[in-house]
Design a protein that fits this description.
The chain is an alpha+beta fold. It has eight helices and 19 strands. Strands 2, 3, 6, 7 and 9 form a five-stranded mixed β-sheet that branches. Strands 10-19-13-16-17 form a five-stranded mixed β-sheet, covered by helices on one side.
Length: 439
């Protein structure tokens, strides 16, 4: 015979409430704190923990995803921001007028792939951006220091908004050939002439970018000291601070679109020449400092060419000309604007015929052995997301002799002209680089 259903509670956290009316349930849940604590906590503790864990995981996912998305969208900008944030740990304040503690971190060979604007890994760079004015009055800046032991050093001052070079002095020009100690005062003026230890730069800039460079430095380097005073009152500048600024040459979308279009045309031309059997489909173009958007060195002329990632390793040849103070070969990423490898002239192996060969590709035992077997120089290029760029720098500090086979004697690259009439080898022959892909 079927047994009547039991009215006893079956157990569990709600057992004392079973079999009683809804009124009792409401009474215990909402009227008595001890029952809310006893039963309510039991009902919500597990779901609450799961909810909190889900929120935490979602927040962590966002923290990871946003930088990755930003990197994919614009890796160069992320490098700029990261470099500036890292430099905050380097900068420190000082007494009124003293801006010396505002120099950036050193841009050098230690982490070149994390630094923007195609740095030369055999050099060190320091950057500082300061307001050019205090209210309606301009500022005078006095810089002083001791020249480092280096193949080359220089001070450049730019309009930080336009990247226009306002001043470029080599170390010898700063010290005027008398000693390694130097001092220079910058005044913003349109009239007058440069005097000893005084340089005039055009007024009108909102901010000034100071860049100190040393190529092949030896030993520890002492950074230049810099002070700022009001040119009208002579009062020291209060609260001197670095002002983070990107030049318009970098932020201007139309200018960037034009650069991207030109580079895409160069890449397409390389593919066409490669498919048609041209011996050297990788051709180079010359860029002067005045038209380079990245706070370029006035004393360097650049030869550059994109390298296509999907075409595999590339072999570049170049005959170094005589009379250079310094030259180097570097590999950068077009999207990142960082550098994966450089070789200075002292590191480059040159064959008996006076030609230098560079094998560019990912760091593998096979490629490194191929380079070693043939006496080629190896440059790794596997840090980057897209196409690479091969950059040759030629540094001279004097006016180039007419007719000398130097990059400096070639016209600047012109976006409006056809590419094939601007091949550097068309005018310089073997003293301009060319290359091919190894497939």
């Amino acid at each position: 015979m079927q047994q009547p259903a039991s009215n006893k509670p079956s157990g569990g956290p709600l057992a004392p409430l079973q079999g009683r009316g809804k009124a009792v349930l409401r009474h215990r849940l909402f009227c008595c704190g001890r029952h809310v604590h006893r039963y309510g906590a039991a009902m919500i503790s597990v779901p609450a923990k799961r909810t909190h864990r889900g929120i935490l995981l979602a927040a962590l996912a966002i923290l990871v995803a946003l930088p990755l998305a930003a990197w994919v969208w614009n890796p160069a900008m992320m490098l700029v921001v990261g470099f500036e944030l890292a430099s905050l740990t380097q900068r420190n304040g000082g007494p009124p007028g003293d801006c010396s503690g505002q120099w950036s971190l050193s841009i050098d060979a230690s982490r070149p792939w994390l630094v923007p604007f195609y740095p030369e890994t055999n050099a060190t760079y320091r950057l500082m951006v300061l307001d050019a004015n205090a209210g309606d009055d301009s500022l005078d800046f006095t810089l002083s220091g001791t020249l480092p032991r280096a193949r080359y050093s220089s001070l450049h001052v730019y309009d930080a908004d336009t990247a226009e070079i306002l001043l470029a002095r080599t170390g010898e020009e700063l010290a005027e050939g008398t000693s390694s100690d130097w001092q220079l005062t910058l005044q913003q003026a349109t009239k007058g002439t440069d005097a000893r230890a005084i340089a005039l730069i055009r007024p009108g800039a909102r901010r000034l970018a100071f860049v100190w460079r040393s190529y092949l430095p030896q030993g520890e380097e002492t950074l230049p000291r810099i002070t700022a005073i009001n040119s009208s009152t002579g009062a020291a500048l209060e609260n001197c601070r670095n002002r983070f600024t990107l030049p318009q040459t970098v932020t201007d979308r139309e200018a960037q679109r034009q650069r991207d279009t030109v580079l895409a045309n160069m890449a397409n031309q390389q593919r066409d020449m490669q498919s048609s059997g041209v011996g050297f489909p990788i051709r180079f173009y010359v860029r002067h400092a005045a038209s380079t958007p990245f706070f370029a060195n006035q004393h360097i002329t650049y030869a550059f060419a994109p390298l296509l990632r999907d075409e595999g390793p590339a072999l570049i040849r170049f005959r170094p000309p005589p009379g250079l103070r310094y030259w180097s070969a570097c590999i950068g990423g077009l999207r990142e604007t960082s550098t994966s490898a450089c070789l200075a002239d002292t590191e480059v192996s040159i064959g008996e015929e006076g030609m230098a060969y560079f094998l560019v590709g990912p760091k593998t035992d096979a490629l490194e052995q191929l380079a070693a077997n043939n006496g080629w120089n190896f440059l790794r290029s596997d840090w980057f997301m897209g196409n690479r760029i091969f950059i040759l720098r030629e540094l001279i500090t004097q006016t180039p002799p007419p007719g000398a086979r130097l990059f400096a004697n070639l016209p600047d690259f012109d976006n409006a002209k056809p590419l094939d009439v601007q091949f550097a080898d068309g005018l310089l022959g073997e003293f301009a680089p060319v290359g091919r892909y190894l497939r």
